[in-house]
Amino acid sequence: MTPSPLHGHWRLVSWTGTNEAGEEVRHGGDAPRGDLIYLPSGRMAVQIQHDERTPFGSRELEAGEPDAQAAAYRTYIAYAGTYSLPREGVVIHHLDTALHPDQLGMEKERRYTLEDGGADGAPAFLTLETQRVRTEDGGEASSLLRWRRED
Predict the structure, then answer these.
(1) What is the mean pLDDT of the segment spanning 84-102?
(2) Nearest CA to 77 among 27, 7, 142?
């Protein structure tokens, strides 16, 4: 794959959007956490967790009551696969593993923008615009994920 300014490790800074009423929405709460990795080999992986997730009280994989496990599942996004850059400002994630079992084989198209970071000219920030996201009140909002380069 040709070198790309997307290559590297990115840390989630914010996940925001605007709902139908024009109000700001903070997807994942005030302080969601996440990591996004694009490799020169064409592989990618992303994990995002909402803030204020309720602990189970045990680190065992089977820990937690069914309702708590369901809440944990709803507040975590994880998938990996390959990516392509079909045109300027667009990246497509081709999923071959995913927390959500129905997303295997899915292609997630994201528009992106990069912001320069300093003297070396490498981008310091990446913003991905995703499909509209359902909000807690049942509406929809735009979805912008802002990432900071970590490497």
Answers:
(1) 97
(2) 27
